[in-house]
Amino acid sequence: MPTLATTIDLAARDFARTIIAAVKNASLQELLAMQTETPTQGRPTRARKAAKKINWPKCKHRGCKRNAWAQGHGLCGKHFRATKRK
User: Fold this and answer.
1) For residues 36 and 16, what is the distance between their CA atoms, to the nearest angstrom?
2) Where are the domains of the chain?
3) Among 32, 78, 82, 86, which one is least packed by beta carbons within 10 Å?
């Protein structure tokens, strides 16, 4: 019994021979018609919705424009750690 690699190799060679024979037997008009056709690639793509911009809450500290830290009770990480030290 042939191995998987041998079976795949034989199938690829047979496929290549079939394609070459088909191209040799085709007329010039058929070959030119195939050249101008654009192949479809599965189902058409859908227009994707633009990703919504997330408005993250900002730090409560005056003048700070950083995003609030999830565990910071409304403060960014820097200002949350500063309040814990006091």
Assistant:
1) 23
2) 1-38, 56-86
3) 86
